[in-house]
Specification:
- Two copies of one chain form a homodimer.
- By secondary structure, the first copy, chain A, is an alpha/beta fold.
- Chain A folds into two domains: about 1-150, NAD(P)-binding Rossmann-like Domain (Rossmann fold, 3-Layer(aba) Sandwich), CATH 3.40.50.720; about 160-270, Orthogonal Bundle (N-(1-d-carboxylethyl)-l-norvaline Dehydrogenase, domain 2), CATH 1.10.1040.
- Helices cover about 55% and strands about 15% of the residues of chain A.
- Chain A contains twelve helices and eight strands.
- Chain A has helices at about 10-20, 35-45, 50-60, 70-80, 95-100, 135, 155-185, 185-200, 200-215, 215-230, 240-255, 265-270; strands at about 1-5, 25-30, 45-50, 60-65, 85-90, 110-115, 125-130, 145-150.
- Chain A has an eight-stranded mixed sheet, with helices on both faces.
- In chain A, α7 crosses α11.
- Chain A is elongated and about 65 Å long.
- The N and C termini of chain A lie far apart (about 55 Å).
- Chains A and B meet through α7, α8 and α11 of A and α7, α8 and α11 of B.
Chain lengths: ~270, ~270
């Protein structure tokens, strides 16, 4: 089985390592890529193709994992030359996935979404949709953990977006209720009593959610913006608009600080 | 120990039964009360005082559990005659609690909040704050489950309000993300993948949250309105405003239906 990666960042290098260890042949192309990508590909000891056309030509399955802004362009460059399957692993909305996959002339395409962290989880779950999703799931024989969730392109990325709408909304709710609680010096109590209904490790999860929202604030805000555009096709996204506004406020506050606060109390103490 | 109840609805009758079984003497006054309250007091076999003044005179501890709109008036009627402790168990905001307790001339007052359902939980947890909260907690010797959370009036009800801001916000988030998911026919999948990060019984909790929001929509919307007023003293309550708007939308939809829908799918199917 020959697997070709378009983009060779954290996601690709992590998956490549695992696929190689299970006996797959892994390829990528470094034409026009950044020095960091080149180094990552070399240290991962994958096969290097001289051109994207060559990569398209030899790969049984192409996995595309580039930054969201490059997703459509990457597919345009290679789309006419794909012989096997093209799997979009990019973190983009269903409508962008559809645009990406329209570039693939042979029509053998899969919408896939990574449902976790490739670096934190040994075997990160991936969901996939589209008529060819089952073919992609053959990679489960090479140590991957792919679940086919539907027959239509867009479903897998929609599931990921909707999960994101919920979990980021929860972070924004925590931010808002704990900020008021902090001002009254009852944040510990509020967390303690929420834990009684929300589960014993609520406090730990809640504080780590706020901390992550502080650290990755800008990227998260952009992601909520994507979710907002997506949901607008189906309803007036009242909660998600509020989530976006809260994240933007938080990012504004953090950006005016000399260093990123380590936890929510430090953030709240410094809020102007 | 003589316990006097002002108001004798579900909360009072449930607590009275338990206090009596532990050996407390329980009193109430039925002057001007509804037929339903009279029946509930009689079936609970509590002692009836001919007037609120008499009730105030003989009670070691007065527990006030009336509907929110009557909280201040009930305290005004009895405030000058209280000999013992006056405990506000009403479901009102910290500023209303303070107004209620200002009516009690002897100043022996407690802010208390019921953190659960008296009907569903054998021994519902109650939190209490104020200088006299410890005296109220003596009722733990009579089977109650009171935790003192602070020295200031307003803290106990603030904890309850902030918990409410969070949990009702979560219900609104579920409503919004599942409504979009339902339209795409992926609501089961979204619930399933949320359960992987949010806990194994997430789907059950989530569907019961939406169901309860449908059944008790109007009361919940009013409660969110209270939380909104309260939070506005501390911040711009962006998420809670959105929660309020979503609840209002949901109540509008449900009120135009012939019968209340049984679950979220039935609700979504009928949304105009």
């Amino acid at each position: 089985m020959k697997i070709g990666f378009i983009g060779f960042g954290e996601v690709a290098s992590t998956l490549a390592r695992s696929l190689k260890s299970e006996g797959a042949e892994v390829y990528t192309c470094l034409a026009g890529r950044s020095l960091k990508t080149v180094e990552l590909a070399q240290s991962s000891d994958v096969n290097i193709c001289p051109s994207f056309h060559k990569l398209a030509d030899i790969s049984d399955i192409i996995l595309a994992a580039v930054v969201p802004a490059q997703a459509v362009n990457a597919a345009k460059i290679i789309g006419k030359h794909i012989k096997g399957l093209y799997v979009d692993l990019n973190n983009v909305s269903p409508s962008t996935v559809k645009e990406v996959l329209r570039q693939i002339s042979n029509g053998k395409t899969v919408d896939a979404a990574i449902m976790g962290s490739v670096t934190r989880e040994e075997n990160v779950p991936i969901i996939a949709s589209g008529k060819y999703a089952r073919d992609f799931a053959e990679l489960n024989n090479f140590g991957m953990k792919i679940e086919v969730v539907g027959q239509e392109i867009g479903q897998a990325s929609a599931v990921k977006m909707l999960r994101s709408a919920y979990t980021k909304g929860v972070s924004a709710l925590l931010f808002e209720s704990l900020y008021a609680a902090y001002q009254m010096n009852i944040d510990d109590l509020v967390l303690k009593y929420l834990a009684k209904t929300e589960g014993p490790n609520f406090t730990e999860i809640a504080t780590s959610r706020i901390k992550n929202s502080i650290i990755h604030g800008e990227r998260r805000t952009q992601e909520v913006g994507e979710v907002l555009n997506f949901l607008s096709e189906y309803e007036d996204p009242i909660m998600t608009q509020a989530t976006f506004d809260v994240f933007r406020l938080m990012v504004d506050q953090v950006s005016s600080m000399e260093k990123k606060p380590d936890d929510y109390r430090e953030l709240f103490r410094k809020i102007k």
